Amino acid sequence: MKTIWVLQHTEAEYLGLLEDHFEGRNLRFRYFRPFAAGGMVPEIPGTADGLILLGAGPYGVTSGHILPSLGPEMRLTRAFLAAGLPVLGLELGALILAAACGQGVEDAPLRFQVLDATSTPAFDAAPQHMPLACYLRDRVVLRPDMPVLMTGPGAEVLAFGEPGKTLGILGHPGMKRGMAEDLIMEFAETPDDTLTGLTDLNLTQMAIAEALGPLMVAMTRHLGWM
């Protein structure tokens, strides 16, 4: 049984609907909460088989209020990659992953959207189309050699990664409406037009849940966690 470490940045955002899918595949997960009293970011991978970096609401990598634990998390991400252990980044976690593996990150405003994500042929077994809830600021700027795995409206990059190494998703495929509501309530800074985001998430919640089965197959295959 593999054990995956999960870095959580806020009380509101966790694995959500992904938890049951990980447990159903005998993938154990252990949360680390550097924002909590006595919380910390590990310095080395230890006995973990992989790392997941979660989102962080309005925190940013290059703009806004910078994530307080960004430095230690970058070092840990690089340590996992140097050890040949795969890293999954969701929302802000994908931005941290991009920066840690030599990609670019640029300023972009805080936003909460549910986008139609289209998988590329490089993301084997993933649903061709699925709704993806995105609550984050900033965006990635990829080198030409980094595979793009999912795109959104206007060819916006929504997922990238190298097989067996990295997977960054600029959204949270397991987000629940309650998670988004809690993020909105947890921070003073909120995206524009949160009502539209919540309405869209509510309308697509069933489709998000239905897409998770094949998406988890694609994710675990891509990361070598099968």
Would you write up a description of this structure?
- The structure is a single chain.
- With 226 residues, the chain is α/β, with parallel strands linked by helices.
- It has a single domain, classed as Class I glutamine amidotransferase (GATase) domain (Rossmann fold), CATH 3.40.50.880.
- Helices cover 31% and strands 24% of the residues.
- It has five helices and eleven strands; from the N terminus they run βαββαβαβββββββαα.
- The chain has helices at 18-24, 70-82, 92-100, 177-186, 194-223; strands spanning 2-7, 27-32, 50-53, 87-90, 104-106, 111-119, 129-136, 139-141, 148-151, 157-160, 166-169.
- A nine-stranded mixed β-sheet has the order 2-1-3-4-11-10-9-6-7.
- Strand 1 (2-7), helix 1 and strand 2 (27-32) form a beta-alpha-beta unit.
- Helix 2 (70-82) packs across helix 3.
- The longest helix is centred in the last third of the chain and has 30 residues, at 194-223.
- The radius of gyration is 16 Å and the shape is globular.
Topology:
Layout: E1 2-7, H1 18-24, E2 27-32, E3 50-53, H2 70-82, E4 87-90, H3 92-100, E5 104-106, E6 111-119, E7 129-136, E8 139-141, E9 148-151, E10 157-160, E11 166-169, H4 177-186, H5 194-223
Parallel strand pairs: 1-2, 1-3, 3-4, 4-11
Antiparallel strand pairs: 5-8, 6-7, 6-9, 9-10, 10-11
**SS field, number of helical segments:** 5
> Main β-sheet, in a few words?
9 strands, mixed
CA distance, first residue to last residue? 10 Å
User: How many strand units?
Assistant: 11
Task: State the low-pLDDT regions, or none.
Answer: none
CATH H level: which superfamily? Class I glutamine amidotransferase (GATase) domain
Spatial order of strands in the largest sheet: 2-1-3-4-11-10-9-6-7
